[in-house]
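Intended use. Records like the one below are meant for learning the mapping from a protein sequence to its folded structure. Do not use them to infer anything beyond what is encoded.
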Amino acid sequence: MANTSDIKKGFCIVYNNDTYKIIEFQHVKPGKGPAFVRTKMRSLTSGKVLDNTFSAGHKIEEVRVETRKYQYLYPEGDTYHFMNTSDYNQITLQKDSLDAPDLMKEGEIVTIIIRTSDELPLSVEMPAHVYLEVAHTEPGIKGNTATNATKPAFVETGAKINVPLFINEGDKIKIDTEKGAYIERVKE
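Structure written out for the chain above:
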């Protein structure tokens, strides 16, 4: 059994008969009253995000997990296929257990969190940034770089990202996978 002082980002716990991963946390020590930990947790089975507050010293049940590197192979409907990079075993996961499936390019290396008690894959962690090519967007207008205006663009995986007006088709861009947002244009 763990307690609230063990909580950190990525920590997996059992709460209400479900497995949750801590996304954000904040230890709060108010001037009056007992300390507590404010958390934002994501269910690893349904993907639902839950805000919860634990009182300081509260006992929580920890889930032992292991992270392994997998290569994304291909999608098949709502099923995604991955291959372990060390032993070449393949697994399939449902779309709802992935954080950003529309930003995954075939061949991408991801980290899969696996519960050690029964070898059940719980969730897929994307790299912090991905580099994708813009497949379709409206043409850029010369001189429109002074404002923060954006336009929609579709990248090679089919995801829709808002990009600055100077981005054109064929440009490679860096994307933040957590927010699904444009970061910068990549020079080749």
